[in-house]
Specification:
Elements (H helix, E strand, L loop, with lengths): L1 E2 L7 H15 L6 E4 L5 H12 L6 H25 L4 E3 L22 H17 L3 E5 L2 E3 L5 E3 L4 H13 L4 E5 L20 E3 H9 L7 H4 L8 E5 L10 E4 L14
Parallel strand pairs: 1-2, 1-7, 2-4, 3-4, 7-9, 8-10
Antiparallel strand pairs: 5-6, 9-10
Helix pairs in contact: 1-3, 2-3, 4-5
Length: 260
């Protein structure tokens, strides 16, 4: 599952999520927890760094800075899980066996998919055999030379989809502060309906025309075998409500090629 920044924006929300994850694990289920930076940490770090450096900061240096948001969030949430008696472990991008390997396109790096999947299986399946719940900072990659990269907007979703695909997960949960994918922007349209199910291809189309429920880059890692559920930290059971995303997104599709 992936915990979004808004779902983690308050300590009480993080506590509730740790409690709910502990409950879900009691029936023998296993989970990897991908975390985003808390709240608007990433935007604040970008703004702070730009001002401090008079706009003269390299993307490589900025990636090192931005990665601290997810690393801190993951450490805190690991501690929260431990406080709820979950055998949790933080996976640090500085570890030699960090599994998300990318090119060196700093600021918007691209995962090297085959290598990522091989490393994820090697690392996480071992943790599962030891009954460890791994907490992984999303959004962060590393080049083959050990340099920290970030995956661009929606990067934590990309991390979650890669991990889910590698492990053959039954479902990937994207935990947010909204009840799922809505039929309209609630800031504009009062009381929009929740969409119960949507195809990945249709969601790709919505991304093309400006609706950012999920980012296009992340959707490209859906291959049809992976079910994704957008849900809310407010639900009592995280995996039973929200919006289900099914199918695969054509990597070459554009808004002109895709129709409802």
């Amino acid at each position: 599952m992936k915990l979004g920044g808004k779902a983690l924006s308050e300590g009480e929300r993080a506590r509730q999520l740790a409690e709910k994850i502990n409950f879900e694990l009691k029936d023998g289920r296993k989970a990897v927890v991908i975390v985003s930076a808390v709240g608007d940490t990433t935007d604040r770090l970008i703004d702070y760094s730009a001002k401090a450096c008079s706009g003269e900061i390299s993307l490589k240096d900025l990636d090192e800075i931005l990665a601290m948001g997810e690393r801190t969030s993951a450490r805190v949430f690991t501690a929260a899980l431990k406080a709820h008696r979950v055998n949790a472990k933080f996976l640090d991008p500085l570890d030699g066996d960090w599994p998300i390997i990318t090119d060196d396109n700093f600021g918007n790096a691209n995962p090297i998919e085959d290598e990522c999947i091989s490393r994820i299986r090697g690392k996480i399946e071992k943790m599962f055999s030891e009954n460890i719940t791994l907490v992984v900072p999303g959004f962060i990659g590393k080049t083959k030379h050990g340099e920290i990269t970030t995956l661009g907007r929606g990067g934590s979703d990309t991390t979650a989809f890669l991990v889910g695909k590698a492990l053959g997960a039954s479902e990937v949960l994207l935990v947010t502060d909204v009840d799922g994918i809505l039929s309209a922007d609630p800031k504009i349209v009062p009381n929009p309906e929740r969409i119960k199910e949507i195809s990945a291809e249709k969601l790709m189309y919505l991304c093309d025309v400006g609706n950012k429920f999920l980012h296009r880059k992340a959707l490209k890692f859906l291959d049809g075998s992976l079910k994704v559920r957008v849900t809310s930290y407010k639900f009592e059971r995280l995996g039973y409500e929200g919006t289900l995303i099914k199918g695969f997104a054509n990597k070459n599709s554009t808004s002109e090629q895709t129709s409802f």
